[in-house]
């Protein structure tokens, strides 16, 4: 069975869940006032609307004139390792993005290849838990495209992003499930605001997973690994900050 069918089945599961929720709301739904409260009401109800829309719903996209004049950097701004410095010096000419783990055809993709495959561009808002947001434009291939090229195996449940920056003994990493991995706005961005991704923002590629908070957007991605379980990665909580500071693994907003 193909991964897409599996994913469709997952989506169907979500839809059924939302359907059940709607059925439960039938009595409320009959009252015009209650329906208005539910669907056009205050912020409190936006969460419910999201749930009803399902996790495939798109994050809001913005117009070019809404882009932030300044998009700050946060966390690591340069991995600073010898290997990274060497790649930077040669414009990432010999750098390859590894796609491996539970895939049929492990890949080693050049930056040029990433730039010439089918692309998606989106202007979105980045929200950091430290209390700042910025709107920027991101471009790159969809993660789904890379996973399909590699042939994700049935046993795969999560996608792990291994980054170049080290913090003491551990490297930054993040992970997402397959719903987010195949979400249309989930891309590996090599361009930001119409220019090649600057080092501070994660060159040569960084993850954009637009329904999630900032720390999920792994910068300096060197390797994309498909796994069945997150237990053996890092301290097992699915990400650098999840391991270290109890940040939520699912940071959907
Ligand atoms: N590899 C790596 N990715 C990372 C981080 C990091 O320190 N290292 N910081 C995260 C956090 S907390 C945020 S808010 C964003 C910041 O992205 P920016 O520097 O492009 O603004 O990157 C995320 N991805
Ligand atoms: Mo952040």
Automatic annotation (TrEMBL):
Residues 93-227 form the Oxidoreductase molybdopterin-binding domain. It holds the Pfam family Oxidored_molyb. It comes from the Bacteria. This is Molybdopterin-dependent oxidoreductase. The lineage of its organism: Bacteria, Pseudomonadati, Pseudomonadota, Alphaproteobacteria, Sphingomonadales.
């Amino acid at each position: 069975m193909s991964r897409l069918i599996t994913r469709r089945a997952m989506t169907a599961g979500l839809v059924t869940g939302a359907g059940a929720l709607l059925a439960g709301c039938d009595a409320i739904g009959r009252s015009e006032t209650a329906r208005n409260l539910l669907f056009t009401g205050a912020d409190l109800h936006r969460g419910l609307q999201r749930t009803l829309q399902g996790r495939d719903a798109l994050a809001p996209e913005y117009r070019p004139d809404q882009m932030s004049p300044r998009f700050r950097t946060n966390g690591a701004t340069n991995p600073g390792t010898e290997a990274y410095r060497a790649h930077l010096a040669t414009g990432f000419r010999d750098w390859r993005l590894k796609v491996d783990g539970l895939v049929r055809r492990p890949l080693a993709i050049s930056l040029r290849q990433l730039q010439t495959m089918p692309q998606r561009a989106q202007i979105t808002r980045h929200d950091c838990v430290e209390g700042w947001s910025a709107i920027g434009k991101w471009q790159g291939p969809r993660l789904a495209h890379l996973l399909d090229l590699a042939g994700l195996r049935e046993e795969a449940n999560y996608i792990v992003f291994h980054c170049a920056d080290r913090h003491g003994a551990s490297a930054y990493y993040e992970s997402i499930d397959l719903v987010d991995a195949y979400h249309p706005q989930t891309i590996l961005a090599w361009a930001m605001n119409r220019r090649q991704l600057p080092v501070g923002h994660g060159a040569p590629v960084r993850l954009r997973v637009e329904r999630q908070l900032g720390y999920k957007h792994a910068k300096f991605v060197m390797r994309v690994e498909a796994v069945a379980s997150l237990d053996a990665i890092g301290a097992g909580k699915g990400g650098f900050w999840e391991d270290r500071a109890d940040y939520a693994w699912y940071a959907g907003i």
